[in-house]
Amino acid sequence: MKKTSVNICLMGSTGSIGRQALEVVEKNSSLRIAAMSAHSNTRLFSEQLKKIKPEKACITDPAAFERYGSARTGGTKILPPGELSALCTDKKIDLVLAGSSGSSALIPIFDALSAGKTVAVANKEPIVMAGDILNAAAKKYGGRILPVDSEHSAVFQCLENSKSPPEKIYITASGGAILRAGKRKITPGFILAHPVWKMGRKITVDSSTGMNKGLEVIEAHHLFSVNFSAISVLLHPKALIHGMVEFADGSVSAYLSEPDMKIPISYALNYPQKRKMSRRCDFTAMDLRLEKYPADKFICFKLALEAGKKGGLYPSALVGANETAVNAFLDERISFPRIAEIIRKTLSETPKMRYNIPNALRVEQWAKERAEKLIK
Predict the structure, then answer these.
(1) Which of 31, 116, 206, 308 allows an S-S link to 142, with CB 3.0 to 4.6 Å?
(2) CB-based contacts of 28: which residues, under 8 Å, 6+ apart?
(3) What's the pLDDT score for residue 69?
(4) Domains (ranges, CATH) in the chain?
């Protein structure tokens, strides 16, 4: 019997990516959420479960799971935190969408790839921290990584349309709120008012520090197997050109779309097909200007590149220190410039350990704790 739908395991259903993914699935009868997870937002998660009715679900925060309980909700079996990998590797699952934040999805992604699953990855940290390991698992066991981040989806699609290897990869940056800061005091409220994208709080800060773009360069290095020297960032405040690929003959393929994350999410979930979306480009009104990325304006961009080029466990320390510093800024415990200062100091003390997933997670946790001590 021919299969009529793609069974999806959605990690992080209550976050920005997860909520948009559910909107995409709702409008496409060939997609089905068979399993889903959330961290601690049990109120929204409960509403989603009642509407979607997946077979299984997982609450990854122990305290939230304890409050919620493990009883079936509308026919859905609720699994405890330690069962997230089992959710992703279930034989009924065709595709895993990793939309949860931070490194929490790293082990489930690895396990899903090791089970031969296709994993659509929306969050940066797993690829940044363990890209080499995840690529090796996918190659060994027949899994596949599909990028969901708009810039990497753009480059991926440009490469899909060519049989030639890339000479150069370009990813674009909108720049966030920092480009219009002038001499005003940089507060969390100002930084969170992103002029183009609607994103989570942390990634919005990362956009203005340049950390987000630095992490994307590291991601591109792993996803497309290219040297750092072959990856360039261009400033494009309108966020209409998301990525470009230059080939040996000097030709360039560019990917354009309205700044709407549902477009790359839909492509990953329906790969290799493209489904109808509501937003369309008006070419007569487009501002396609591209400029040199002003790296000196973005206090964390060079730090991220340095950690990426060092490799090993430095990216894990980068991820941990950045998360702690950004949260401290959002809580108004530190100033905007101190984000970079704390990350730099933490990176300089990165412990030397063997590069593997357990140590990557250990170093990330160490960096969070070390950064917290520097803040105090």
Answers:
(1) 116
(2) 266, 269, 270, 275
(3) 74
(4) 6-147 (3.40.50.720), 150-261+290-298 (no CATH), 299-376 (1.10.1740.10)
